[in-house]
Amino acid sequence: MSSVPSVPPAGPEITHGECRQCGTLIAGLDGRYSCGVCGWVNHHSEGHRPLPRAEDDIDHAVGGSEANRLS
Ligand SMILES: [Zn+2]
Fold first, then answer.
1. Most buried of 8, 24, 57, 70, CB within 10 angstroms?
2. Rounded-to-integer distance, Cα 28 and Cα 33, Å
3. What would you report as the CA-atom Rg of the chain, rounded to the nearest whole angstrom?
4. pLDDT at residue number 31
5. pLDDT at position 69, please?
């Protein structure tokens, strides 16, 4: 893992923080954490960037009734 190319982060960035419940140092993505020790998670709004919405998903058909045909 020593020859990692310096590519600017296009996707989620790995961040580190401390679990506010048990104090364990945990890794997260874009400031969102999930503690594997005690199960604590922070709120998604604490993330560094907004979560992708369904409208942003290119695989998700929007604006038509065809997307809801299965319901
Ligand atoms: Zn914890």
1. 24
2. 5
3. 17
4. 92
5. 64
- pLDDT value of position 71: 62
> What distance in angstroms lies between residue 10's CA and the mean position of ligand 1's atoms?
28
Full-model pTM: 0.54
Could you tell me if residue 5 is inside a domain? Answer: no
Give residue 40 CA to ligand 1 midpoint distance, Å: 5
Ligand 1 mean position, distance from CA 43 (Å) = 14
Tokens describing residue 5: 């190319």
What domain range is 33 assigned to?
12-41
Assess if residue 23 is contained within a domain. yes
| CA–centroid distance, residue 18 to ligand 1 (Å) | 8
Question: Which of these, 38, 10, 43, 13, lies nearest to 28 by C-alpha position?
Answer: 13
Evaluate whether residue 29 is within a structural domain: yes
pLDDT along the chain (71 residues), means of 10: 68 92 95 95 84 73 59 62
